[in-house]
Write a structure and sequence with these properties.
Largest sheet: 2 strands, antiparallel
Structural class: mainly alpha
Number of domains: 1
Oligomer: single chain
Length: about 375
Protein backbone atom coordinates (compact mmCIF):
# COMPACT_ATOMS: atom_id res chain seq x y z
CA UNK A 1 0.00 0.00 0.00
CA UNK A 2 2.76 2.48 0.94
CA UNK A 3 4.67 1.70 -2.26
CA UNK A 4 1.75 2.87 -4.38
CA UNK A 5 1.69 6.33 -2.79
CA UNK A 6 3.24 9.04 -4.97
CA UNK A 7 5.15 10.86 -2.26
CA UNK A 8 6.21 13.67 -4.59
CA UNK A 9 2.57 14.84 -4.58
CA UNK A 10 2.68 15.28 -0.80
CA UNK A 11 6.13 16.81 -0.32
CA UNK A 12 4.81 20.36 -0.01
CA UNK A 13 2.13 19.32 2.48
CA UNK A 14 4.70 17.47 4.57
CA UNK A 15 7.15 20.41 4.57
CA UNK A 16 4.51 22.99 5.52
CA UNK A 17 2.91 20.65 8.08
CA UNK A 18 6.19 19.84 9.83
CA UNK A 19 7.23 23.50 9.85
CA UNK A 20 3.86 24.51 11.32
CA UNK A 21 4.06 21.90 14.09
CA UNK A 22 7.67 22.71 15.00
CA UNK A 23 7.22 26.49 15.13
CA UNK A 24 3.90 26.17 16.97
CA UNK A 25 5.59 24.15 19.70
CA UNK A 26 8.43 26.66 19.88
CA UNK A 27 5.95 29.54 20.07
CA UNK A 28 3.86 27.94 22.81
CA UNK A 29 7.02 27.31 24.84
CA UNK A 30 8.12 30.95 24.35
CA UNK A 31 11.25 29.86 22.51
CA UNK A 32 10.80 32.29 19.62
CA UNK A 33 11.54 36.01 19.70
CA UNK A 34 9.07 38.58 18.41
CA UNK A 35 11.29 39.20 15.38
CA UNK A 36 11.23 35.48 14.53
CA UNK A 37 7.44 35.38 14.83
CA UNK A 38 7.16 38.40 12.53
CA UNK A 39 9.52 36.73 10.04
CA UNK A 40 7.31 33.62 10.01
CA UNK A 41 4.29 35.80 9.24
CA UNK A 42 6.11 37.44 6.33
CA UNK A 43 7.27 34.07 4.98
CA UNK A 44 3.75 32.61 5.03
CA UNK A 45 2.30 35.70 3.31
CA UNK A 46 5.05 35.66 0.66
CA UNK A 47 4.49 31.97 -0.10
CA UNK A 48 0.72 32.44 -0.47
CA UNK A 49 1.31 35.30 -2.91
CA UNK A 50 3.93 33.40 -4.89
CA UNK A 51 1.97 30.16 -5.20
CA UNK A 52 -1.21 31.99 -6.24
CA UNK A 53 0.66 34.05 -8.86
CA UNK A 54 2.36 30.89 -10.10
CA UNK A 55 -1.08 29.59 -11.04
CA UNK A 56 -1.51 32.56 -13.42
CA UNK A 57 2.03 32.95 -14.74
CA UNK A 58 3.43 29.44 -14.53
CA UNK A 59 0.44 27.25 -15.37
CA UNK A 60 -1.88 29.52 -17.38
CA UNK A 61 1.01 31.32 -19.07
CA UNK A 62 -0.38 34.86 -18.63
CA UNK A 63 1.92 37.67 -17.47
CA UNK A 64 0.27 39.51 -14.59
CA UNK A 65 1.91 42.53 -12.93
CA UNK A 66 -1.01 43.54 -10.74
CA UNK A 67 -0.91 40.89 -8.02
CA UNK A 68 -0.08 43.51 -5.40
CA UNK A 69 -3.32 45.27 -6.39
CA UNK A 70 -5.39 42.29 -5.25
CA UNK A 71 -3.39 42.18 -2.05
CA UNK A 72 -4.00 45.90 -1.56
CA UNK A 73 -7.77 45.39 -1.88
CA UNK A 74 -7.72 42.57 0.66
CA UNK A 75 -5.53 44.53 3.07
CA UNK A 76 -7.61 47.72 3.03
CA UNK A 77 -11.10 46.21 2.93
CA UNK A 78 -10.26 43.37 5.30
CA UNK A 79 -8.50 45.82 7.61
CA UNK A 80 -11.46 48.19 7.52
CA UNK A 81 -13.81 45.31 8.33
CA UNK A 82 -11.58 44.44 11.30
CA UNK A 83 -11.73 48.04 12.55
CA UNK A 84 -15.53 47.95 12.42
CA UNK A 85 -15.81 44.49 13.96
CA UNK A 86 -13.31 45.00 16.79
CA UNK A 87 -15.78 46.86 19.08
CA UNK A 88 -18.22 43.96 18.67
CA UNK A 89 -16.03 40.84 18.78
CA UNK A 90 -12.77 42.30 20.03
CA UNK A 91 -9.41 41.46 18.47
CA UNK A 92 -10.30 37.76 18.31
CA UNK A 93 -10.22 34.91 15.83
CA UNK A 94 -13.83 35.72 14.86
CA UNK A 95 -12.83 39.20 13.71
CA UNK A 96 -9.92 37.76 11.76
CA UNK A 97 -12.02 35.09 10.01
CA UNK A 98 -14.75 37.53 8.95
CA UNK A 99 -12.13 39.99 7.69
CA UNK A 100 -10.43 37.19 5.74
CA UNK A 101 -13.70 36.22 4.05
CA UNK A 102 -14.59 39.83 3.17
CA UNK A 103 -11.16 40.75 1.85
CA UNK A 104 -10.73 37.53 -0.14
CA UNK A 105 -14.20 37.62 -1.74
CA UNK A 106 -13.94 41.26 -2.83
CA UNK A 107 -10.45 40.62 -4.23
CA UNK A 108 -11.85 37.60 -6.11
CA UNK A 109 -14.57 39.85 -7.56
CA UNK A 110 -11.90 42.18 -8.93
CA UNK A 111 -10.05 39.11 -10.20
CA UNK A 112 -13.14 38.36 -12.28
CA UNK A 113 -13.08 41.94 -13.61
CA UNK A 114 -9.40 41.65 -14.57
CA UNK A 115 -9.97 38.18 -16.00
CA UNK A 116 -12.39 39.58 -18.58
CA UNK A 117 -9.79 41.55 -20.58
CA UNK A 118 -7.44 38.58 -20.21
CA UNK A 119 -9.75 36.75 -22.62
CA UNK A 120 -8.66 39.04 -25.45
CA UNK A 121 -5.23 40.31 -24.37
CA UNK A 122 -1.95 38.43 -24.39
CA UNK A 123 1.63 39.02 -23.33
CA UNK A 124 2.74 42.62 -22.94
CA UNK A 125 -0.78 44.02 -23.39
CA UNK A 126 -2.14 42.01 -20.48
CA UNK A 127 0.89 42.96 -18.38
CA UNK A 128 0.14 46.66 -19.02
CA UNK A 129 -3.54 46.24 -18.07
CA UNK A 130 -2.75 44.41 -14.82
CA UNK A 131 0.01 46.89 -13.99
CA UNK A 132 -2.41 49.77 -14.52
CA UNK A 133 -5.00 48.01 -12.35
CA UNK A 134 -2.52 47.72 -9.47
CA UNK A 135 -1.47 51.36 -9.70
CA UNK A 136 -5.07 52.61 -9.98
CA UNK A 137 -6.08 50.56 -6.94
CA UNK A 138 -3.19 51.89 -4.89
CA UNK A 139 -3.88 55.49 -5.94
CA UNK A 140 -7.58 55.24 -5.06
CA UNK A 141 -6.83 54.11 -1.51
CA UNK A 142 -4.04 56.67 -1.14
CA UNK A 143 -6.34 59.55 -2.19
CA UNK A 144 -9.39 58.30 -0.31
CA UNK A 145 -11.15 60.07 2.53
CA UNK A 146 -8.87 60.01 5.61
CA UNK A 147 -11.80 59.00 7.79
CA UNK A 148 -12.60 56.08 5.49
CA UNK A 149 -9.25 54.48 4.55
CA UNK A 150 -6.74 56.82 6.15
CA UNK A 151 -5.67 58.66 3.02
CA UNK A 152 -1.92 59.25 2.60
CA UNK A 153 -1.25 58.49 6.28
CA UNK A 154 -2.60 54.95 5.92
CA UNK A 155 -5.27 52.91 7.66
CA UNK A 156 -4.73 51.93 11.29
CA UNK A 157 -5.72 48.29 11.89
CA UNK A 158 -5.73 46.00 14.94
CA UNK A 159 -2.57 43.93 15.41
CA UNK A 160 -3.34 40.26 16.02
CA UNK A 161 -1.48 38.28 18.68
CA UNK A 162 1.99 37.48 17.35
CA UNK A 163 2.06 34.07 18.99
CA UNK A 164 -0.88 32.84 16.94
CA UNK A 165 -1.09 34.86 13.71
CA UNK A 166 1.68 32.92 11.99
CA UNK A 167 -0.12 29.65 12.84
CA UNK A 168 -3.28 30.91 11.13
CA UNK A 169 -1.17 32.10 8.19
CA UNK A 170 0.41 28.66 7.79
CA UNK A 171 -3.01 26.98 7.97
CA UNK A 172 -4.25 29.26 5.18
CA UNK A 173 -1.08 28.44 3.23
CA UNK A 174 -1.83 24.74 3.69
CA UNK A 175 -5.37 25.25 2.35
CA UNK A 176 -3.97 27.26 -0.56
CA UNK A 177 -1.60 24.42 -1.48
CA UNK A 178 -4.35 21.80 -1.27
CA UNK A 179 -6.68 23.74 -3.57
CA UNK A 180 -4.11 24.82 -6.16
CA UNK A 181 -2.23 21.51 -6.35
CA UNK A 182 -5.44 19.51 -6.66
CA UNK A 183 -6.59 21.80 -9.47
CA UNK A 184 -3.28 21.40 -11.25
CA UNK A 185 -3.34 17.58 -11.04
CA UNK A 186 -6.95 17.31 -12.17
CA UNK A 187 -8.46 17.48 -15.64
CA UNK A 188 -8.93 21.20 -15.06
CA UNK A 189 -5.19 21.58 -14.55
CA UNK A 190 -4.49 19.74 -17.78
CA UNK A 191 -6.90 22.08 -19.55
CA UNK A 192 -5.14 25.12 -18.06
CA UNK A 193 -1.71 23.94 -19.18
CA UNK A 194 -3.14 23.11 -22.61
CA UNK A 195 -4.27 26.74 -22.91
CA UNK A 196 -0.77 27.83 -21.94
CA UNK A 197 0.90 25.62 -24.53
CA UNK A 198 -1.44 26.40 -27.43
CA UNK A 199 -4.68 28.29 -26.94
CA UNK A 200 -5.91 27.68 -30.51
CA UNK A 201 -5.38 23.94 -30.19
CA UNK A 202 -7.11 23.97 -26.79
CA UNK A 203 -10.15 25.67 -28.30
CA UNK A 204 -10.20 23.20 -31.17
CA UNK A 205 -10.56 20.21 -28.84
CA UNK A 206 -13.45 21.81 -26.94
CA UNK A 207 -11.74 23.37 -23.91
CA UNK A 208 -13.70 26.32 -22.54
CA UNK A 209 -10.87 28.87 -22.53
CA UNK A 210 -13.09 31.63 -21.13
CA UNK A 211 -14.10 29.57 -18.10
CA UNK A 212 -10.59 28.46 -17.21
CA UNK A 213 -8.99 31.88 -17.57
CA UNK A 214 -11.62 33.44 -15.34
CA UNK A 215 -11.27 30.59 -12.85
CA UNK A 216 -7.50 31.03 -12.60
CA UNK A 217 -7.66 34.80 -12.13
CA UNK A 218 -10.41 34.50 -9.52
CA UNK A 219 -8.56 31.86 -7.47
CA UNK A 220 -5.27 33.78 -7.63
CA UNK A 221 -6.98 37.03 -6.60
CA UNK A 222 -8.84 35.25 -3.79
CA UNK A 223 -5.65 34.05 -2.10
CA UNK A 224 -3.86 37.34 -2.79
CA UNK A 225 -6.74 39.07 -0.97
CA UNK A 226 -6.30 36.67 1.96
CA UNK A 227 -2.59 37.46 2.03
CA UNK A 228 -3.50 41.15 2.15
CA UNK A 229 -5.81 40.62 5.14
CA UNK A 230 -3.05 38.72 6.94
CA UNK A 231 -0.71 41.61 6.17
CA UNK A 232 -3.17 44.07 7.71
CA UNK A 233 -3.33 42.01 10.92
CA UNK A 234 0.47 41.71 10.91
CA UNK A 235 0.98 45.51 10.96
CA UNK A 236 -0.51 48.37 12.88
CA UNK A 237 -0.86 50.61 9.82
CA UNK A 238 -1.49 49.88 6.13
CA UNK A 239 0.09 52.28 3.66
CA UNK A 240 -0.70 52.22 -0.05
CA UNK A 241 2.96 52.77 -0.97
CA UNK A 242 3.65 49.18 0.07
CA UNK A 243 1.59 47.80 -2.81
CA UNK A 244 3.28 49.58 -5.73
CA UNK A 245 4.40 47.90 -8.97
CA UNK A 246 7.79 47.07 -7.43
CA UNK A 247 6.06 44.71 -5.02
CA UNK A 248 4.22 42.99 -7.89
CA UNK A 249 7.53 42.53 -9.70
CA UNK A 250 9.10 41.21 -6.49
CA UNK A 251 6.40 38.52 -6.31
CA UNK A 252 6.96 37.73 -9.98
CA UNK A 253 10.70 37.36 -9.33
CA UNK A 254 9.93 34.76 -6.66
CA UNK A 255 7.86 32.80 -9.18
CA UNK A 256 10.54 32.98 -11.88
CA UNK A 257 13.37 32.15 -9.49
CA UNK A 258 11.51 29.10 -8.20
CA UNK A 259 10.75 27.88 -11.71
CA UNK A 260 7.72 28.52 -13.87
CA UNK A 261 4.98 26.10 -12.92
CA UNK A 262 6.94 24.68 -9.97
CA UNK A 263 5.04 24.91 -6.68
CA UNK A 264 7.90 23.55 -4.58
CA UNK A 265 10.30 25.98 -6.20
CA UNK A 266 7.91 28.85 -5.49
CA UNK A 267 7.80 27.90 -1.81
CA UNK A 268 11.59 27.72 -1.56
CA UNK A 269 12.24 30.94 -3.49
CA UNK A 270 9.65 32.91 -1.48
CA UNK A 271 11.17 31.64 1.78
CA UNK A 272 14.72 32.37 0.66
CA UNK A 273 14.05 35.90 -0.61
CA UNK A 274 12.01 36.83 2.46
CA UNK A 275 14.75 35.64 4.82
CA UNK A 276 17.34 37.41 2.65
CA UNK A 277 15.45 40.72 2.91
CA UNK A 278 15.14 40.38 6.67
CA UNK A 279 18.83 39.59 7.09
CA UNK A 280 19.94 42.45 4.85
CA UNK A 281 17.74 44.87 6.80
CA UNK A 282 19.36 43.62 10.00
CA UNK A 283 22.96 43.68 8.78
CA UNK A 284 22.95 46.76 6.55
CA UNK A 285 21.73 49.59 8.76
CA UNK A 286 22.41 53.31 8.91
CA UNK A 287 24.42 54.62 5.96
CA UNK A 288 24.80 51.06 4.63
CA UNK A 289 21.04 50.66 4.21
CA UNK A 290 21.26 52.02 0.66
CA UNK A 291 23.21 48.89 -0.30
CA UNK A 292 20.37 46.51 0.58
CA UNK A 293 18.87 46.55 -2.91
CA UNK A 294 22.35 46.31 -4.48
CA UNK A 295 23.29 43.14 -2.59
CA UNK A 296 19.85 41.65 -3.14
CA UNK A 297 20.07 42.29 -6.88
CA UNK A 298 23.56 40.80 -7.11
CA UNK A 299 22.43 37.63 -5.33
CA UNK A 300 19.45 37.32 -7.67
CA UNK A 301 21.70 37.78 -10.72
CA UNK A 302 23.99 34.99 -9.49
CA UNK A 303 21.03 32.64 -9.02
CA UNK A 304 19.57 33.45 -12.45
CA UNK A 305 22.93 32.86 -14.15
CA UNK A 306 23.37 29.59 -12.28
CA UNK A 307 19.91 28.35 -13.26
CA UNK A 308 20.26 29.27 -16.95
CA UNK A 309 23.95 28.98 -17.85
CA UNK A 310 24.40 26.24 -20.45
CA UNK A 311 27.91 25.33 -19.30
CA UNK A 312 26.67 24.69 -15.77
CA UNK A 313 23.97 22.27 -16.88
CA UNK A 314 26.02 19.08 -16.15
CA UNK A 315 26.80 20.38 -12.67
CA UNK A 316 23.14 21.29 -12.02
CA UNK A 317 21.91 17.91 -13.22
CA UNK A 318 24.45 16.04 -11.11
CA UNK A 319 24.12 17.97 -7.86
CA UNK A 320 20.48 19.12 -7.73
CA UNK A 321 18.32 17.97 -4.82
CA UNK A 322 16.45 15.38 -6.87
CA UNK A 323 19.63 13.70 -8.14
CA UNK A 324 21.25 13.70 -4.71
CA UNK A 325 18.13 12.19 -3.15
CA UNK A 326 17.99 9.48 -5.82
CA UNK A 327 21.61 8.57 -5.18
CA UNK A 328 20.98 8.36 -1.45
CA UNK A 329 17.85 6.22 -1.70
CA UNK A 330 18.87 4.12 -4.71
CA UNK A 331 19.22 0.40 -3.94
CA UNK A 332 22.28 -1.28 -5.44
CA UNK A 333 21.40 -4.20 -7.66
CA UNK A 334 23.13 -7.53 -7.17
CA UNK A 335 24.54 -8.59 -10.59
CA UNK A 336 24.67 -12.26 -9.51
CA UNK A 337 20.99 -12.32 -8.66
CA UNK A 338 18.86 -13.83 -11.40
CA UNK A 339 15.85 -11.61 -11.97
CA UNK A 340 12.78 -13.45 -13.18
CA UNK A 341 11.03 -11.50 -15.91
CA UNK A 342 8.31 -13.31 -17.77
CA UNK A 343 7.97 -10.51 -20.27
CA UNK A 344 11.50 -10.54 -21.69
CA UNK A 345 11.59 -10.72 -25.48
CA UNK A 346 13.31 -14.12 -25.53
CA UNK A 347 10.61 -15.63 -23.29
CA UNK A 348 7.55 -14.46 -25.19
CA UNK A 349 6.02 -17.46 -27.02
CA UNK A 350 5.90 -16.88 -30.79
CA UNK A 351 5.53 -19.02 -33.90
CA UNK A 352 9.01 -17.98 -35.04
CA UNK A 353 11.91 -18.19 -32.66
CA UNK A 354 13.33 -14.74 -31.99
CA UNK A 355 16.95 -15.91 -32.37
CA UNK A 356 16.43 -17.38 -35.83
CA UNK A 357 17.72 -15.49 -38.86
CA UNK A 358 15.21 -15.14 -41.66
CA UNK A 359 16.84 -15.13 -45.11
CA UNK A 360 15.71 -14.68 -48.67
CA UNK A 361 17.42 -16.53 -51.51
CA UNK A 362 17.88 -13.63 -53.90
CA UNK A 363 19.77 -15.66 -56.52
CA UNK A 364 16.97 -18.22 -56.83
CA UNK A 365 14.42 -15.45 -57.30
CA UNK A 366 16.49 -13.82 -60.09
CA UNK A 367 16.88 -17.21 -61.87
CA UNK A 368 13.11 -17.76 -61.87
CA UNK A 369 12.55 -14.30 -63.36
CA UNK A 370 14.97 -15.05 -66.23
CA UNK A 371 13.28 -18.38 -67.00
CA UNK A 372 9.93 -16.59 -67.31
Amino acid sequence: MMKNIKWKHYVNYIIVGIATIIFTILSLTSSLSSSSLYALEKIAIAIILTVSLSLVVGFLGELSLGHAGFMCIGAYLGGKAAVLLEPVFGNTIMTLLIALIIGALIAALFGFVIGLPALRLKGDYLAIVTLAFGEITRSLFMNSDPELFGGTLGLETPRFDRNYLFIIAFIILFICLIIIQNIIRSKHGRAITAIRDNEIAARSIGINVTKYKLMVFIIAAFFAGMAGVLYSFSNYTIQSSTFDYNYSIEILVMVVLGGMGNITGSILSATFLTILDIRLQTILTGDMAVLQDVFRSLILIVFIIYNNAERLRPFREKYNLKSVWQRITMKKKDPNKDQDDEHKWDRVPTKIKMDEILTLNVNSQEKEDKDD
